[in-house]
Design goal:
The protein is α+β, with helices and mostly antiparallel strands and 386 residues long. It has helices at 52-72, 110-113, 254-267, 284-290, 308-312, 346-356; strands spanning 8-11, 14-15, 76-85, 88-99, 105-108, 118-122, 128-137, 142-146, 169-174, 182-196, 202-209, 221-223, 229-238, 249-253, 273-274, 277-281, 298-303, 319-323, 326-330, 334-338, 341-342, 362-369, 372-379, 381-382.
């Protein structure tokens, strides 16, 4: 069978229609022999001992994790969701969540609770309480439920994107495979990833990590070593044959959390700005085929019906040609800036719209058309639900 090379993105709630646990404890015991063993020469080599400062450093790093877990694990919950089957509530899936504020709002993934009929929250001490759905947003895969908090359980503070860097140590706490209160450690392995939402749109600025997250970790916090939430664990990349972690996981970034969640709590939903184009990042074949004076930008391949871009007069692809062996769409506008901010990739537009704008807001696109720059003003719409 040929090896599968295309990866698959897996959302991290764990279905509980059945549970399978394999336990392997193999112990090999040497058999006695009738003859004594032949003497073997043994070379003893001195092993350098760690200096006191090195031992202290390791101890301090360990203590940071121990203290962080002791402080925050009570604020991370196990979420069990149910479906109504012929009048009976049946366990559908388990996932994770964490206390967002002291009013009992708990943040998790929308794919955990969407379409379910009942939700329960289990705290670290085993206390189980029913929760109600406050709001969900399929475009960011975020949802808020609410429960009465036990005494002493408090919210986990939010971090910021500004302090994040590739190589930074991070921690995930959650319930992989239903194993409550599991802590794993890793690093930020990339920033600025774009991951699929539960709609046709994408989630920008996702955090990539090698901290082990698996089915059941959905909705749990990704934390920095100060104990601040920097993301909500949501997806893993697999090789297409497994649903388990291969060292590449993704968290919805705190920048999106800060923008979406307060509105979910207030209104139950979140409206995203909408431009109404499809496109791609400018690449060398496109530069050559269209004789572009720039090497970076966002190419508008399609202008969607009834959207702001169509009303503003943006142009999409007019024909497809072959350029140096590549199929290249040409004739569309090149967006080089939005509100004066440089656009180097198509993702730059998604990030700017998601974090800096709202429906009804006017923006100015700087475009390149027929070798000339021009500014186009348009008023953003609201993302369609379908």
């Amino acid at each position: 069978m040929p090896k599968l090379t295309r990866n698959t993105r897996i959302f991290l709630s764990i279905a509980l229609f059945f549970s399978l646990v394999s336990l392997a404890c193999g112990v090999s015991t040497p058999r006695a022999t009738s003859n004594p063993p032949t003497p073997v020469a043994v070379v003893v080599q001195a092993i350098p001992t760690a200096s006191t400062s090195e031992v202290t450093l390791v101890t301090n790093e360990d203590q940071v994790l121990v203290d962080l877990y002791s402080r925050l694990n009570p604020s991370v919950v196990n979420i069990t969701v149910y479906l109504d089957q012929n009048g009976l509530l049946v366990v559908y899936a388990q996932a994770s969540g964490f206390v967002y504020d002291n009013q009992g709002h708990i943040l998790t993934n929308a794919h955990v609770v969407h379409g379910t009929d009942a939700v329960e929250v289990t705290f670290s001490d085993g206390l189980i309480r029913a929760a109600t759905l406050v709001g969900e947003d399929l475009n960011s895969d975020l949802a808020v439920i609410q429960v009465e908090l036990p005494a002493g359980v408090t919210a986990i503070p939010m971090g910021t994107m500004d302090e994040l860097a590739v190589g930074q140590t991070v921690v995930a706490i959650g319930n992989p495979f239903g194993l409550e209160g599991t802590l794993t450690r890793g690093i930020i392995s990339a920033l600025g990833r774009r991951i699929p939402a539960l709609t046709i749109f994408s989630i920008p600025q996702a955090i990539q990590t090698d901290a082990a997250i698996n089915p059941g970790n959905s909705g749990g916090p990704l934390l920095n070593l100060k104990g601040e939430v920097i993301g909500v664990n949501a997806q893993i990349e697999t090789n297409g044959t497994s649903e388990n972690n291969l060292g590449v996981g993704f968290a919805i970034p705190v920048s999106i959390i800060r923008r979406v969640v307060p509105t979910l709590i207030e209104n139950g939903h979140y409206d995203w700005p909408y431009l109404g184009v499809q496109g791609l990042t400018v690449d060398p074949p496109l530069v050559k085929a269209m004789s572009l004076p720039v090497e970076q930008g966002a190419y508008v391949s399609a202008v969607l019906d009834d959207g702001p871009a169509l009303a503003a007069g943006l142009h999409g692809t007019t024909q497809t040609i072959t350029q140096d062996g590549h199929r290249v769409e040409i004739g569309g506008d090149i967006i080089t800036a939005i509100d004066g901010q440089p656009v180097n990739t198509f993702d730059d537009i998604l990030v700017y719209l998601s974090l800096q704008t709202s429906p009804g807001q006017e923006v100015t696109l700087t475009i390149l058309r027929d070798g000339k720059y021009q500014d186009i003003k348009l008023t953003l719409g609201t993302r369609p639900t379908q």
